[in-house]
Amino acid sequence: MRLCSIKLDGEECAGVVTPAGIVPVAAINARHGRAWATDLMSLIQHGLSPALLEDALRTTGALAPQAVDHAPLYRHPRKIWGIGLNYRDHAADLSAPFPTEPASFMKGDHTIIGPGEVIRLPSQSERVTAEAELGVIIGRTCRDVAEQEASSVIAGYCLIIDMTAEDILQRNPRFLTRSKNFDTFFSFGSELITPDEVPDVTSLCVGTYRNGELHRENRVANMAFPPFQLVAFHSQVMTLYPGDIISTGTPGAVVIRDGDVAGCRIEGLGELSNPVRAAVR
Predict the structure, then answer these.
(1) Residue 90 pLDDT class (50, 70, 90 cuts)
(2) Segment 195-206, tens digit of pLDDT
(3) What is the pLDDT of residues 27-84, one digit of tens each?
(4) What CATH number does the domain located at 80-278 have?
(5) Are 252 and 90 in contact (CB under 8 A)?
(6) What is the value of pTM for the model shown?
(7) In a 10 Å sphere around its CB, with 0-12 CB exposed, 13-18 middle and 19+ buried, how is residue 97 labelled?
């Protein structure tokens, strides 16, 4: 099943992606007398039932994907975990030592934007990079999850473009939180893809793009710490909740400037892109 959030009548609401188009959950409720939650975060919290897709397939009046404005999947996860240097090639790019355990950091929900929304380059930085990543969305409250059980707590996968004020980070590694947490520094969407549609997550190829041209790509199989291991590791640090996001690291970061378009493509999952604009000084 594939789900998204779209903008309708000034509100952001959940939709189910079907071969006929996007079916708003509110339309499903009206058509079949259901009481599905109409925002994606609540749907995740209640559990993503295959019956929702069955209802969507029986609902007429699907919206053409190109005719709707996509929103971020949701606005307020309890946690966003980012993973640094998870591909060996990316660590070499930065002349950084390769971590022997996940190098993670946290981001606030104020950084979130959706597909097509503008990435604003902060005036405090002269070198911002964009990084395409695979996102893992947690589906249920969990703690101390074994790696072999991690798939059971995942609601789905998504595309992410993470931003870094790289010049700030290079001044001092302790500035990581600041370099990662400017407004608009986390784009995610446009679809949540449930695990049944991703039979082998390690086979996925993640690519960072700028202005439609590939900058760097790599397969999830080449991560030092693959998605299930990341879920298990972080669940041992703290309780994970429905809607929490783990952004699993990038195959390569590309410098973005005013007028660029940053992009992420993951084979089989889709594309995500955002225009880049300089801050007004």
Answers:
(1) low
(2) 999 999 999 999
(3) 999 999 999 999 999 999 999 999 999 999 999 999 999 889 999 999 999 999 999 9
(4) 3.90.850.10
(5) yes
(6) 0.95
(7) exposed
What are the start-end ranges of the H helices in the chain? 25-32, 40-46, 50-57, 88-93, 166-171, 176-180, 227-235
Plot region of 99 (φ>0 → left; ψ -120 to 50 → alpha; else → beta): beta
Nearest 10 degrees: CA dihedral of 238, 190, 184, 236? 10
Nearest one of 128, 133, 117, 143 to 234, comparing CA atoms: 143
User: For 1-5, 99-103, 231-235, which range has the lowest pLDDT when averaged over its residues?
Assistant: 99-103
Interatomic CA distance for residues 156 and 265, integer angstroms: 17
- CA neighbours closer than 13 Å in the CB half-sphere of residue 204: 32
Q: Which has more confidence, 66 or 112? A: 112
Inform me whether the pLDDT recorded for 93 exceeds 70: no
> Pick from 262, 269, 278, 268: which is nearest to 132 by CA?
262
Q: Domain map of the chain by residue range?
A: 2-70, 80-278
22, 6 Cβ separation under 8 angstroms = yes
* Closest C-alpha among 196, 186, 208 to residue 260: 208
- Residue 124 per-residue DSSP state: T
pLDDT of residue 119: 98
Cα angle 250, 87, 171; round to 5: 70
Task: For the beta carbon of residue 27, count every other beta carbon within 10 angstroms.
Answer: 22
The β-bridge relationship of strands 119-121 and 270-278 is parallel
Residue indicated by tokens 């097509």 = 116
Cβ-based neighbours of 227, under 8 Å, separated by 6 or more: 134, 136, 150, 154, 201, 220, 246, 248
Q: Which two tokens stand for residue 184?
A: 């608009």
